[in-house]
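SAMPLE LOG
Freezer: B-3
Tube label: C17
Construct: single chain, 509 aa
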Amino acid sequence: MLKTPSQEEFELEVLKDPTKEEELSDADASTQIQGHEEKPTSPSATRIWPATYVCTVVASGFLLLGFSMGFNSPVLSSLKSRTGYTSLQKTLDQDIFNFTFLIGLTLITPFSGYLTDRFGRKLSIILCCIPYTFGWLIVVLTVSTDGPAFRPLLYIGRFVVGVAAGWTSVCFNAYVAEVSPSRYRSTFIVLNGLMLTVGLFLAQLIGVYISYYWLAMIPLAFTVIFVLFSTTITETPRWLLIQGRKSDAVKTLAWFNGPKSNVGEEIQKLEEGISSEKLSVFDVFREFKNRSVYHPVILACFVTFFLELSGISAVIFNVEDIFKKGNVKSPGLTSSFATGGVQIVSSFIGIFTTFVFGRRTLLMISYSVASLSHAVMGVYEYLNNEPYCHPPDDPQCKSDLYPLAIVCVALFIASYSAGIAATSFPLLVELVPLRVRGVGIGLSLFVNGSIAAVIAGLFNSYEILVKPWGVFWTFSLTCFIAFWFVAVFIPETKGKSLEEIEHTFDKRR
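STRUCTURE (predicted):
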């Protein structure tokens, strides 16, 4: 097919000389993409390497998020070994240290979507590295601080890192979801989760051999490198269209998909999707009067509520300390493989389990396994402590069944990663109706973060109150309750369209 002069001019200006594209108006861009609309596009005509590059760069940022989460476990041992602190002060140090990170993450969550929309996906990715840098720098500087100033500085540093982590989880996922081709989207999203677990594993593994302030130097240096690479990625076409920058969106799509792609058709689909999502704030909250809206949103909040009541944050943040109290050999090294290593493997398994089982079935199986592992871990802690040990710290009466503790923790982590987490987060998207999805998912994630902060912040104090075995039996009970909640209230969503799922709640009591 012969090219029109306008089409040739468009390809020269947009594909070969992007600097000239700034001079094009949106009206010119709309006219010039007409030539692309007549040309059918096969899947092979769309290139994948640009999306692979930018998604890999962004996914590497999840190493920071995972490192921030895994940082807690090795640091808690350093806090407990500091001289001049009473037992109560050491316990409060651990609880507040866990709490400050999670409360920072939780407080920023309701605003992360607005900030990401306000500044754009690319700029948000770069800007969220600012609190990362300041937070880790404050943690590093605590090494030269002793006395009353040490603990406040450490808490402030962790709070600031938590704020960065909360913003990261929103803007990074939004970027990957918008730039990845639909047939590869699930792969790129899985890559984000994989990088997070790798970061968690590395923090716990490296923390065995170096002190906490040298451990904090690693993400501080990585943040600088990540910012440099982040400047090489492009803005998402969807955000450019929302801002009215249609010509920029056309140029970006042409770079992502290649000169043979159907740019005009993709632009039209994006515009239709954006226009269908535009609701005022009052319209969104008015939708909550409908049963088909508030019912699934409430269920989504309970899904994230039980997600944290499974005990995942308490175990991840305190696993090294748990193994030390459980008389496990080499607790630091063991904890890194029992959590981070198992999470990496089970994350891959989760890809297949979500296809084999339905959402509801997989959640019930996972909560059953989690409840059992916590119950057995509680029995081990009971046999390993006070009833048979006088005094309680007598090494002669400690149980030599410590491999059982490792198996229980690893089994719980596997059930969480391959089942509970792999199912709960997709359920949020499937349960919450599209027209209120931003508010509904934001509300459920706020519940998730709040419960995580409370549980991780009270873990050590609660352990003193009910003993280690009481903590694990409590988690076993909550997982058992979660099993029955899913069995009674959560509908199966596998194989159903979003419209069918929404229609289900019109008829459910």
